[in-house]
Amino acid sequence: MNRPKTGLLVASLVLAVVALWALAPGLFTAHDPIAGVPAEKLQAPSARHLFGTDAVGRDLFARVVHGSVHSLSGAFVAVAVGLLLGTLLGLLAGSAGGPVDDAVMRFVDVLLSVPGLLLALTVIILLGPGTVNVAIAVGTGSVAAFARLARSEVVRVRRTDYVEAAFGSGGRYPVVLWRHVLPNSLGPVIALTALQFGMAILAISTLGFLGYGAEPPTPEWGLLIAEGRNYLATSWWLTTLPGAVVVAVVLAAGRISRSIGRSTA
Amino acid sequence: MARYLLRRTAQAAFVLWAAFTVAYVLLQLLPGDSILIKFQNPELGLSPRQIQEIRAYYGGDVSPLESYATTLLGFLRGGFGYSIDTGTPVVERLAEALPATAVLAGSGFLLAVLIAVVIAFAAGHSRTSWIRGALLAVPSLFVSVPVFWLGILLIQVFSFRLGLVPVIGGSALQQLVLPVLTLAVPIAAPIAQVLARSIDRVQAQAFVPVVAAKGASRWWILWRHVARNAALPALTVAGVTFGELIAGSVVTETVFGRNGIGRLTEQAVNAQDTPVMLAVVVLAAAVFVLVNFAVDVLFPVLDPRLRAVTG
Amino acid sequence: MPPFTKGSPMSRSRLRFAAASAATLAVAGLLGACGGTGPAADSSTGKAKAAGQPVYGGTLTYLEHQPPTCLYLPAAGFYPNGGILNQITDKLTWQNPETLKIEPWIATKWEIDKDATEYTFHLRDGVTFSDGTPLDAEAVAANFDVYGLGDEKLKLPVAEFVNNYERSEVVDPLTVRFHFTKPSPGFLQGTSVIGAGLVSKKTIALPYEEQCRLRNIVGSGPFTVKNQVVDKEVDLAVRKDYDWAPPSSGHQGRAYLDEIKIIVTPEDNVRVGALVSGQADFVRYVQAYDEATVKNAGFTVYAEPTRGVNNGLYLRPGNSILKDRGVRKALQAGTNAKEIVETLFTSGYPVATSVLSRLAQGYTDLSKELAYDPDRAATLLDEAGWTRGPDGVREKDGRKLRLGVFVAGPQPLSKQTLELVGQQWARIGVKLEIRPADAGTQAVDIKDAEKTAVAHSMVGRADQDVIKSHFHSQNRDVILSDDEKLDRLLEEESAEPDVTERNAKVAEIQRYVVDQGYAIPLFEEPQVYGGAPYVHGVAFEAVARPSFYSVWKSERE
Question: Transmembrane region positions (chain B) (predicted)?
Fold first, then answer.
């Protein structure tokens, strides 16, 4: 059983490094992420520029490091919005049942039935561009998914013998909910959270791809990938390296959350 | 059962109406409108009076409530009005875009389910922990790749470098290969993830070793016991994921230059082409309602414990 | 946005602009004078050009950047629209893109009275629309009655390239006369622009919505619409009985190609990749950084000049910071256009030396006045009372020197250009706030000088009036002008019948605009196309819309 632990270690390390990037970017790079040196544009990765430089001569590694704070907080906000609102709704519907369940789930249906991307685009236009606004827009789109999953889990767990037994032995509703239903429903919800964290980063980059990203010259990761794609044929590093960072972070988050999911389930 | 169906139909109608209304209100709140976007560009040199005239042409100068009522009535009669951006009837634009997206989304969804089942069961069956771990990491890997990026990469490698499938020209089938793959990968991920977790849980339950001890093969156990239990949450996610197909088709169709609902949506949002956006929302809501209706009907079939409740 | 630029959401299907855009055009073939008519043309493969006799037949696959929008003729200025309409319609006259002279086409000759209020056109005999109806005086009159007067009932707006129009008069089946309420000296050139394409009487009698649709556009051009998948693809087929190319075209009779497939492919790297891998023959909008990819593969880059107001930043005096001329002049001196071109663009994008392109009529060289001088910029800002704050951004009365600008979707690499300008301005203590554009917010805020202090734009048009289109408060009004003197100068230019006098006036205006610090010209914007080496005979009109009439394909090597 050594390998999984190694994986967990690597995953934790990745997240720790990225968290440090967000907290103290100056420790990792001396280059300016905003002001570049035009004469040094589109240079391939080298010792001087680890990730190469972009079209305006900015150091890509510096942009990735300084961008982590925007991307991580963006993804956190998005997941928090979806997780909190969604799980609350799902829990309420699943455990209350009856007309409450109906009402909540119809509301969730409405949310769900409007395509998430369309909803996100509309919310961004309403709120205006900016990392947090984009994150909220992305989060809105995932409320319904969380709610549905949470509800289906609660319904499932409620019908298991031990929860029915808990009710049967005179447990009070909130107590049973908190002690038995919630923890037992949490596993799949956390599994979804892991995916949603990655999805939030990706959704933000998709919005960047469609032209609704953070304000330039903000070095947000998704935007780096989205804009670097145009240079794929000529300067591969512009989209590949930020892409690799995102993949690593999302994988690490997934790995860690799986082990959390396993220990709580 | 008849009462149940009736109730569900009423609910479906409510969801459609609510989706329409929410979308309508949101679109009203947006800064500017399509007429402004089209004509009030200062570089066009149109006077405010001329713009007001144009707005009157399009019925854009009536009160919001009146306009809401007119639009709703139009939708009930199946008339979605004219696209302000292109001047063509919305119905026509939808009819032109729908088949391509239906084929793309349908094939993408089937492929996604196939991929998900293969991954989840292979992982569930595997005895070697690192293979299991690797397989379980695949869904995360799938979703950690941006769809547009994956699409562009597939095009670069398979079409431009290797010359295996043309993206421009080529038969309808050839044109479908890369987009379907692009669309299926991210959708397969959540289904596989939930499936795998449910398999895990059932495998951990007490009866599995007992059945196994009776000599049942692991595959048989997986199918008989696990699949049925796992199918519930997986089905829920699949229903939800159907919405992702719309988002996925926006990106996929843009990257591959395919015609369809996704492209239509993106262009309508850009131009704030309200009639088109409303129609897309109602269409998506209708598809969603239908799919979930099917899922809900399947729920009791798959889980006997629920039969008594809804039946 | 200018119709000549690659459209943004904002440039979609406009109505009147086409005139301002008033692109001249070169519909039918420009002899075999293919590949890069303009001086800025940049072709890497000379060998393909020499390839022998034209052959008939074949299909040209042309990848377009955006789908066409409303195809009502006066809306044809938008490049994706023009790219189609240029192949399926003819015009009364033809503007030679080299000399910019007006030459005969459907009109074999014409007379203009001395005060330019009466134009008489004599039409070529035997010209028919693709529905079989004759292109005669009645049809021409019906077209211009709509372009000149609009039609309230059909919701058809007036076309901007026709001014002071009163009525038409059918003298005989092949002679048509137009009467104007006031002198209209620009009308002759107006009959040659892309928006003045002639359509059948049946088409012109349709309401606006119907005229927007490609399938209803019946013209007399060398190609006809065979099939359309909205937003995706337009297939054009050759018209075998076509026999009325402009007399100055070396190639007469039917077009060489059998078919043109215009496929909308929005992704930049897919368009270029498809071209280079042989899946497409011709593409529009090759980005500067992809030019090398195209050339290295042995393909041709066509960088066609647009001959109008240069791509640049336009400063709005209505903004409470920019109302100070000193600040505007400081920004002008603090912007290094050369660095922008060298960093982001190629030789197809010459550094601007005035408000207008060197190829524009009435151009005057102001490169000295526009020289990059950051020290002078700093001095000017000091004098204006803006002093450096702790974060390096200048302040005055507790207010930061911050200016907003929208990323201009239609301009090539607008975001990168603005980011670079932002870097340059940061050095002189000015913060440029770059906002990504959503069409609705932009439509509202772009009219607000406080929110949008700076505009990034350009206009292409092969006529002196282009400068009026850009700056006059009743036209595009890019700087949201409150300058009466500027308006007066522009009106004088527009009403001046003598060419030399008019050009002198245009020069005076350029000097005035630069002196007032209204403009920071960056570069002369081309339309950049990529073509396969086996594609010959591509011609462009004066503002770079392609014509495929004389195009033919040789064997692939």
Answer: 12-30, 97-122, 134-156, 176-196, 276-299
Residue range of the domain that includes B35: 2-76
Whether cis (ω within 30° of 0) applies to the bond prior to A217 is yes
What DSSP assignment string belongs to C409-471? TTSTTHHHHHHHHHHHHHHTT-EEEEE---HHHHHHHTT-TTT--EEEEEE--SSTTHHHHHH
Q: Which chains have 3 or more CB–CB distances shorter than 8 Å to chain A? A: B, C
B249 with B284: CB under 8 angstroms?
Answer: no
CB-CB under 8 Å, A3 with B149: no
Residues 89-148 of A with CB under 8 A from C: 124-125, 128-129
B178, B31: one domain: no
Smallest CA–CA distance, residue A169 to chain B, in Å, is 21
Identify the CA nearest to A189 among candidates A245, A260, A118, A141.
A260
B171 part of a folded domain: yes
Of A7, A115, A239, the CB nearest to B243: A115
How close B277 comes to chain A (CA, Å)? Answer: 9
| pTM score, whole prediction | 0.82
Determine, for residues C416 and A125 on separate chains, whether the beta-carbon distance falls below 8 Å.
no
| Other beta carbons within 10 Å of B214 | 8
ipTM: 0.80
| C175-180/C118-123 β-pairing | antiparallel
Residues of chain C with pLDDT under 70: 1-51, 160, 437, 557
8 Å CB contact of A35 and C268: no
Between the two ends of chain C, the Cα-to-Cα distance in Å is: 41
Is residue B250 less than 8 Å (CB to CB) from chain C?
A: no
Q: What is the pLDDT along chain A (265 residues), one digit of tens a residue?
A: 444 578 789 988 998 999 999 999 999 999 999 888 888 889 999 999 999 999 889 999 999 999 999 888 888 899 999 889 988 898 888 877 788 888 888 888 888 777 777 788 888 878 877 778 888 888 887 888 788 888 888 888 777 777 777 777 776 777 777 777 777 777 777 767 776 777 787 788 788 778 787 788 888 888 888 888 888 888 889 988 998 898 888 778 777 776 766 655 4
A4 and B22 within 8 Å at the Cβ level: the answer is no
Number of domains present in the structure of chain B? 2
Interface contact flag, B255 C213, Cβ < 8 Å: no
Let me know if residue A256 belongs to a domain.
yes
**Nearest residue on chain B to A233, judged by CA atoms?**
B156
C474-487: pLDDT as tens digits: 777 888 888 999 99
**One domain for residues B37 and B136:** no
**B152 and B272 share a domain?**
yes
Residue with tokens 């290969």: B177
Residues B270 and B305 in one domain: yes
Query: Chain C residue with minimal CA distance to A124?
Result: C438
Contact (CB<8Å) B40/C265:
no
- Which chain B residues touch A195 with a CB distance below 8 Å? 139-140, 143, 189-190, 193
CATH number at residue A136: 1.10.3720.10
Alpha-helical (H) ranges within C243-324 are 268-276, 291-296
